Amino acid sequence: MAKTRQKPDLLQGTLDLLILRALQWGPQHGHGIGVALRANSDEVLRIDHGSLYPALHRLERQDWVQAEWRVTENKQRAKYYRLTAAGRRQLAIERTRWSRLSAAIARVLGPA
């Protein structure tokens, strides 16, 4: 039987946390954010552009990220995103929420 590689589903709100975290490493264009998340998750997290870009636009509307057009290393125009002060505060809030949620899930899944 062929082994299929399943794509893990992200909990609602988790993508925002991951994007904010990726931008904590420095400004990046959308594709670069996806690459960074994939690389830093040992190739487990593969965020498709159909989810990534709407999330980036939502974060921009909430003033958690700011964007500006730049030229990439490949000489293409791309929108680069960076974390704002409000985004750094939101990242701290989201990390706390994630810690509480993951600890609760671990308790439920732990030994009976």
Q: Enumerate how many helices there are, as a single number.
A: 4
Number of β-strand runs: 3
Quickly give the CATH architecture.
Orthogonal Bundle
From the alpha carbons, calculate the radius of gyration and give it in angstroms: 16 Å
Shape, principal axes of CA atoms: globular
* CATH level 3 topology: Arc Repressor Mutant, subunit A
Indicate the structural class.
alpha+beta
State the share of residues found in helices, binned by percent: 40-55%
Largest sheet: 3 strands, antiparallel
Distance between the termini: 33 Å
Task: Going across the biggest sheet, name each strand in turn.
Answer: 1-3-2
Q: Segments where pLDDT lies below 50 for 5+ residues?
A: none
The CATH C-level name is Mainly Alpha
Write the H/E string, N to C: HEHHEEH
